[in-house]
Amino acid sequence: MTHIEEESGYLDSTMGKMVTIQSDIENAIKEIYEVLTIAGNESLRMQLAPKKPTTNRSVPWWTDELTIRRNRLNAFRRRYHRTTNNDNLRPHRETKYLYDKARYNIKRMLHIGLIYKGIAYL
Length: 122
Fold this sequence. Notes:
Elements: H1 3-21, H2 25-43, H3 64-82, H4 89-112
Helix pairs in contact: 3-4
């Protein structure tokens, strides 16, 4: 018989005695619940990871400047896509969006290291 089987047998007999000895079943259930809670907390004690300040960046080359450029590009994209009724304004917003998209992509590739400053200058 293993140690765990011995403990489970002891626990079963102890719980059985508690239920038969105590006339108040509610108190017996509360005590059993407390014992199980304590046993569970002791055996399943979770180790908390140390708190690190997060910068919410998934890649090391991401910068605040890229965040600003991405937000600006998204604003231009939204303006362009929402301009459906004005035929004079839509080409202007499309040009502005595509120009900013190209600048953003070049800046992003510079940060990644896919292109070098000697090749493209912004």
